[in-house]
Amino acid sequence: MTKRAELKATLFALGILMLFPGCNRSSPPRPSTPSTSGVLHLTTASFEGALGQEKPVLVDFWAPWCGPCRTQGPILEEAAAQIGDRAVVGKVNVDEEAALAKRFDIRAIPTLIVFRKGQEIQRFTGVQQAATLTSALEN
Question: Is 23 marked active-site?
């Protein structure tokens, strides 16, 4: 096993898989699909429109091969249901939208960022509970 593969295995086991160029993923990226849960699947094309709203915006930077990201998914949906139309909740697949991940200096996933009027207000790294996310959006 190469040193790079050992590092990736260690980080994955710890739930801290870092994003680094050339990382081989265990599964292919999932195509963007509309969400029925109130969570928007954001792309580079739709990102600015989401941020341009008057409502606060929560964005989850994630990848389908990331275990902690899969844990965060249902929690994000729960937060979106709790917050309703008082905020926008979206997710960005870092495999498909690498430019957005780079723009916001995403070094580990899941990373969740709260925006107000297009400006970053708060950043969380790692799995967060729905109450933490809704509180960040409401304050």
Answer: no
